[in-house]
Design a protein that fits this description.
The chain has 28 helices and 15 strands. By secondary structure, it is α/β, with parallel strands linked by helices. It binds adenosine-5'-triphosphate (ATP). Adenosine-5'-triphosphate (ATP) is lined by residues 318, 544, 546-547, 550, 552, 570, 572-578, 780.
């Protein structure tokens, strides 16, 4: 092929065309399925078949005679020669034309490119006209002679076939040449733009580096640790299929030897038994090892996948749905299990069988084998396209399946809400929609599978029919028999290839997750001897990546000294929880800095500092294990430590009252415990860590007086002696706070002690007022209380506080 260079810089290879346009950091490539390659395919098939027909048309004398005593109406040497010329000339013309047209597209006002493209177009059309004219004239003359001249010596069948072939393909090539104008214009639409960053990495529209996609090579790499087992298993596969092949031979010998002597019979039977035993052992090893390697592979894949998911930053989980990720873990990995183990070995075996079969066919009749094999390029081309098609369908299928899984997961895990809102029907139909989509893709897959088999069958049996038509000689029978075997091997091999492509499709998402580098790292960084409970926010700005147009923190600055208890208050949605999340480094600020113990949070080892921070949220999440395991979640603690923490958290009493005590299972997300009990278990879980910093989101849910008292007492105990940041909802908490920070619309509206703030007529005072007017135990609410209200309740506040 050609490779050009110059101002428009263009390179063409057999798969893509690349252009570096004016901006250095972008590049176009062309898809392989395009006009130029289709026409090239036609020309190569034309050349191949023409030469085969010419070569198989007669004996060597006839051959030579045809060339030496060339006659326009009796020889076809010229047609074979023309086909060979076309195979050389047209690819060059097409490549030059594509280059010129491409330059013309990028430089529409440069005349020389336009002229060059036009000249090449005309050359292509003219040469195809010349070839067409020649072959039709020749065909016409031969037809005329056959019909009108009694003394015309008819040519061999292959030669007649070659004339018909040449006329048909010349017409096809002429039409293709005519279509070259529109074919080349399409280059502009179909070309694919690639962009690169400074490091030379390809980036997407958002400027993010594009990760290496899924491909067969990567799939093989994943299976590398299984290579040893797979090799042994494949060896056993060959042994067992070898045994199966030779056993009929010995079976026949048994009958022969029975006629001769008992000794010979015993020997032959012994050999046969030996073969059967060998077959049994190798079949056992084959079955065992393939399955074992499949399970090993999928287990390793799942573990790796799970740990990669867990390493992702919290923002990743804001945009990914739990059900979908779980589906990736279970279903996508499963598809890969067979592919990289059994299918690849089958592919190896059938490829070997194919080679054997081909050798046998060549031995029988090389020329006829050539004719039969002419279908192979067409089948291969079809198989590759089919594989690509399968890859896409398979990805869609897995995606829809994952969506269905997500729906089901969400619905089942929230069954109480679904039941109370009678959402069963809605959930069922939402699930059905996703499953119907996967079914629709499944239908397409089934159709594609059937069509592939049908078309290949048609092509291959067509070629067999051609061979049989040749004559009823035994050699041809044998040839067609072995060709049938070859067809079977081809089909199985193509199916294995197709399954590999299918697995590549299913693994796209797996690789996406494998390649994903967490934006907030989960490990590595500085580990200090001890952590000082000092927290500083310096002009922190933050927007959640999942909602980029909503700025949540707009320059937040505050300091928390060691041992201080700081209360965060403010209207709902102001950004309090966001601040707390940022201390855990669930998210990194867009601007500004957060320091912990005087160190930039980004420099510290996340796992190290997180072990020194404990968080108790409003609605704590417990795991579906025992109370003991829940309390000891963050630390390998003894039962004594667990009990001590539970006592501190006012939880020991209720836990002891359970029949199974600390071994009581709490159910999924702690559903078997009451709200107050869950909160106390969560406080115990935080206390057992003995955290330097405690992050607390006070419960807003109304607990009964006794429960509330117990929780409050536990919270108060938990706070003593450590730095505490509390999202406060109770007056008692804020009154005790060393500092109250009022967060409103992402900014610090007020800062100070309770008394200082209450003396101002600001947001805080209005919040407190609101609490009193509503009678709710919350510091939440709409701050826009009227001035009148404010004045009316002023005295009341001062009395109460
Ligand atoms: N994970 C998230 N992704 C996108 N936006 C979020 C996310 N979490 C919170 N927000 C948005 O950020 C803003 C601040 O939320 P935040 O939870 O920090 O407020 P808050 O003051 O704690 O509210 P509340 O007192 O009601 O809990 C809100 O507008 C909210 O919708």
């Amino acid at each position: 092929m050609c490779r050009g260079s110059g101002d428009g810089r263009l390179g063409i290879d057999d798969s893509s065309t690349e252009t570096v346009v004016n901006q250095e950091k972008q590049r176009f490539t062309l898809p392989s399925f395009r006009y130029t390659n289709i026409v090239l395919g036609i020309i190569f098939i034309d050349g191949l078949v023409s030469v085969i027909l010419w070569l198989t048309g007669g004996t060597s004398e006839y051959f030579v005679d045809n060339i030496v005593h060339f006659h326009l109406r009796e020889s076809v040497f010229d047609l074979a020669l023309i086909a060979a010329i076309k195979v050389t000339l047209f690819p060059c013309l097409l490549a030059l034309l594509e280059t010129a047209s491409y330059r013309q597209i990028d430089n529409p006002y440069v005349d020389k490119f336009q002229t060059r493209a036009r000249v090449l177009h005309i050359s292509l059309i003219l040469s195809s006209v010349v070839f067409l004219a020649y072959s039709t004239t020749k065909g016409g003359l031969i037809l005329y002679s056959i019909l009108n001249e009694n003394d015309y010596v008819k040519m061999h069948t292959e030669y007649n076939a070659l004339v018909i072939w040449a006329v048909c393909f010349s017409i096809l090539e002429f039409l293709s040449a005519l279509a070259s104008y529109s074919g080349m214009r399409k280059l502009k639409i179909i070309r694919i733009l690639h962009k690169y960053n400074d490091k030379g990495e390809e980036i997407d529209e958002k400027g993010e580096p594009i990760k290496q996609g899924a491909n067969i090579k990567r799939l093989f790499k994943l299976a590398k640790p299984e290579a040893g087992i797979l090799m042994v298993a494949t060896f056993c596969l060959f042994i067992s299929s070898g045994c199966q092949m030779v056993s009929p031979l010995f079976f026949g010998k048994v009958v022969d030897s029975a006629m001769k002597s008992l000794d010979e019979l015993s020997n032959t039977v012994l050999i046969l038994v030996g073969i059967y035993i060998l077959n049994a052992i190798s079949a056992f090893l084959r079955g065992w090892l393939f399955t074992l390697s499949g399970h090993r592979f999928v287990a390793r894949l799942r573990k790796h996948m799970f740990s990669t998911i867990l390493k992702q930053e919290v923002a990743f989980f804001d945009t990914s749905r739990t059900g979908e990720l779980c589906n990736r873990l279970s279903s996508d990995t499963q598809v890969l299990q067979n592919t990289v183990t059994v299918n690849i070995s089958m592919l190896a075996r059938y490829t070997l069988d194919m080679i054997g079969c081909l050798s046998f066919m060549f031995y029988l009749n090389p020329a006829l084998t050539g004719v039969l094999l002419s279908v192979i390029p067409v089948v291969s081309l079809g198989a590759v396209q089919y594989g690509k098609f399968l890859k896409k369908l398979s990805k869609d299928f897995q995606d829809h399946l994952a969506d269905g899984g997500t729906q089901a997961e969400e619905c089942i895990s929230s069954i109480r809400t679904v039941r109370s809102f009678t959402g069963e029907e809605k959930a069922t139909s939402a699930y059905s929609v996703e499953i119907d989509k996967s079914y629709a893709t499944g239908k397409k897959l089934a159709f594609a599978y059937g069509a592939f088999q049908g078309i290949i069958g048609l092509l291959v049996y067509g070629a067999i029919a051609l061979a049989l038509w040749y004559g009823g000689k035994l050699v041809h029978m044998l040839l067609s028999l072995s060709f049938q075997a070859l067809y079977l091997y081809c089909l199985v091999s193509f199916q294995c290839i197709a399954l590999v492509f299918q697995a590549v499709g299913a693994s796209v998402r797996l690789f996406e997750i494998f390649d994903r580098i967490p934006k907030v790292p989960n490990e590595n960084g500085v580990m200090l001897a001890s952590l000082e409970g000092r927290v500083n926010f310096k002009d922190v700005h933050f927007t959640y990546p999942s909602r980029p147009d909503n700025v949540v923190l707009k320059g937040v600055t505050f300091n928390v000294n060691p041992g201080q208890m700081v209360a965060l208050v403010g209207p709902s949605g102001g950004g309090k929880s966001t601040i707390v999340n940022m201390i855990e480094r669930f998210y990194d600020p867009d601007d500004g800095m957060i320091t912990l113990g005087g160190m930039d949070l980004k420099t510290l080892d996340p796992q190290w500092f997180r072990r020194r921070i404990a968080m108790v949220s409003q609605e704590p999440t417990l795991f579906a294990c025992s109370i003991k395991d829940n309390i000891a979640y963050g630390k390998n603690a003894t039962i004594e430590e667990v009990m001590e923490a539970a006592k501190q958290a006012n939880a020991h009493e209720f836990i002891s009252s359970f029949e199974e005590g600390y071994d009581t299972m709490v159910g999924e997300r702690g559903v078997r415990l009451s709200g107050g009990q869950k909160q106390r278990v969560a406080i115990a879980r935080a206390l057992i860590m003995d955290p330097v910093i405690l992050l607390l989101d006070e419960a807003t849910s109304a607990l009964d007086a006794e429960s509330e008292h117990l929780v409050q007492e536990a919270v108060d105990r938990a706070m003593s002696g450590r730095t505490v940041l509390v999202i406060a909802h109770r007056l008692s908490t804020v009154r005790n706070a060393s500092q109250v920070i009022v967060i409103d619309k992402g900014c610090i509206a007020e800062k100070g002690t309770h008394d200082e703030l209450i003396s101002k007529d600001g947001v805080y005072k209005r919040l407190v007022l609101r609490q009193l007017t509503a009678g709710a135990p919350l510091l939440h609410g709409d701050p826009s209380l009227t001035e009148q209200n404010s004045i009316n309740y002023d005295t009341q506040i001062n009395d109460k506080l």
